[in-house]
């Protein structure tokens, strides 16, 4: 997905897709997790599960985020941001406050959800919380059996509960999901009840790769995967 382009291209791109959105309200769920509600013309956006919107964070930099919630009738969209470093994206979203205006581009990406499968499993980290929130009402409305696994920093361990997520387990971010032996020992990998489940793996690229490698040798269900960030890689 797009992360940076020349300024003149960005200006042309943005002017074509106006109007911008306005920040209605912001809230911090932890020192690292910020939720922002925007209002603007989202009528033509496609909020397919797995799709993301591009947001402009500087004259040349863009970042991609999944809508946690949207309401086209009210023209509102909620996005959850992981404020974790001194990077340009984190600094920009940390600074946004009510009545600020910004640019949100159209949604695009790849599908990560098959509604026809009864059992649904989701894995992610702080960068995956928005997608998890978008998935929850679909899981419930479609009467799925579902489980969420999150690897989170200690200060973010209560965020899934604050977001109203259900059937989740929080694991410490201690590198366990990059260790095949430890992944094999997870409850989801030891039961036969979830062999044909729909698996959605997101978040850190290395964690996703390790989890996917283990699951490929254990399950018959489809494994959807999308890495959102990688150490040393800017604007993934």
List the helices and strands and how they pair.
Blueprint: H1 7-16, E1 21-28, E2 33-39, E3 51-56, E4 62-65, E5 67-71, E6 76-82, H2 88-95, E7 101-102, E8 104-109, E9 119-124, H3 129-141, E10 145-152, H4 159-162, E11 168-172, H5 180-184, H6 187-190, E12 198-204, H7 205-216, E13 223-229
Parallel strand pairs: 9-10, 9-12, 10-11, 12-13
Antiparallel strand pairs: 1-2, 1-7, 2-6, 3-4, 3-8, 5-6
* Number of structural domains: 2
Q: Can you say what the CATH homologous superfamily of the largest domain is?
A: Nucleotide-binding domain of ferredoxin-NADP reductase (FNR) module
CATH topology category name of the largest domain: Rossmann fold
Which strand-content bin applies to the residues?
25-35%
Text of the CATH class of the largest domain: Alpha Beta
Unreliable residue runs: none
Share of helical residues: 10-25%
Q: What is the CA–CA distance across the termini?
A: 7 Å
Q: Report the sheet with the most strands, covering strand number, pairing sense and barrel closure.
A: 5 strands, antiparallel
Mean pLDDT: 90
Number of helices: 7
Order of helices and strands: HEEEEEEHEEEHEHEHHEHE
Features:
236 residues, five-stranded parallel beta sheet, Rossmann fold, 13 strands, Flavoprotein pyridine nucleotide cytochrome reductase-like FAD-binding domain-containing protein, Elongation Factor Tu (Ef-tu), domain 3, Riboflavin_synthase-like_b-brl
């Amino acid at each position: 997905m797009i992360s940076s382009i020349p300024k003149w291209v960005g200006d042309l791109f943005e002017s074509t897709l106006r109007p911008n959105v306005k920040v209605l309200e912001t809230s911090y769920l932890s020192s690292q997790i910020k939720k922002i509600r925007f209002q603007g013309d989202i009528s033509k956006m496609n909020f397919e599960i797995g799709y993301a919107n591009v947001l402009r964070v500087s004259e040349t930099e863009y970042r991609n985020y999944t809508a946690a919630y949207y309401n086209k009738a009210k023209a509102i969209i909620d996005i959850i941001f992981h404020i974790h470093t001194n990077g340009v994206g984190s600094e920009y979203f940390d600074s946004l406050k009510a009545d600020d205006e910004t640019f949100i581009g159209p949604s695009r990406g790849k599908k990560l959800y098959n509604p026809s499968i009864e059992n649904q499993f989701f894995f992610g980290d702080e960068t995956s919380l928005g997608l998890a929130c978008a998935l929850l009402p679909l899981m419930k409305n479609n009467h799925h059996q579902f489980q969420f696994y999150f690897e989170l920093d200690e200060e973010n361990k209560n965020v899934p509960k604050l977001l109203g997520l259900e059937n989740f387990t929080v694991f410490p971010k201690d590198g366990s999901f990059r260790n095949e032996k430890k992944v094999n020992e997870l409850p989801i990998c030891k039961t036969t009840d979830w062999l044909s489940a729909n698996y959605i793996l997101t978040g850190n690229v290395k964690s996703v790769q390790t989890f996917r490698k283990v699951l490929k040798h254990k399950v018959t269900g489809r494994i959807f995967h999308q890495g959102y960030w990688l150490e040393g890689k800017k604007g993934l």
